């Protein structure tokens, strides 16, 4: 679904999410696996697995699996359950917002021979 509006804030493209049942079941199963690994990590911390050399590596591996599993859950959720929306934004030059006000973009006119009134376009990155 696209709109023909080009004013700031208009929705340019909107594609609804697929919301598949298979993705929902996969997210639920990955969440169960996540909870099991979190409890295993917590049990390992409490029981002192981290005090030995191999136990510390094992806890690190469990923590890595926890974060990779969480990444898969979030990626699936973003892909399957969030709509794809593109809105119209005002395009500006990179330096325009940082250094000059909008009314001063074209600079000041030359006149009166004073150095302060030299056109800002000569040196646009002038900080105030």
UniProtKB/TrEMBL annotation:
Record bears the keyword Membrane: yes
Domain of life: Archaea
Keywords: Membrane, Transmembrane, Transmembrane helix
Cross-referenced InterPro entries: DUF7318
Segments traversing the membrane: 21-45, 57-77
UniProt keyword Membrane present: yes
Protein name: Uncharacterized protein
Origin species: Haloplanus rubicundus
């Amino acid at each position: 679904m696209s709109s023909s509006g080009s004013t700031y804030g208009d929705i340019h493209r909107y594609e609804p999410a697929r919301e598949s049942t298979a993705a929902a079941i996969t997210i639920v199963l990955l969440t169960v696996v996540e909870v099991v690994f979190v409890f295993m990590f917590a049990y390992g911390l409490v029981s002192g697995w981290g005090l030995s050399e191999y136990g510390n590596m094992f806890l690190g591996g469990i923590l890595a699996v926890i974060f990779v599993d969480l990444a898969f859950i979030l990626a699936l959720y973003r892909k399957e359950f969030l709509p794809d929306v593109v809105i119209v934004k005002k395009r500006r030059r990179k330096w325009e917002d940082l250094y000059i006000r909008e009314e001063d973009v074209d600079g000041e006119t030359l006149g009166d021979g004073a150095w302060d009134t030299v056109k800002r376009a000569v040196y646009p990155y002038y900080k105030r």
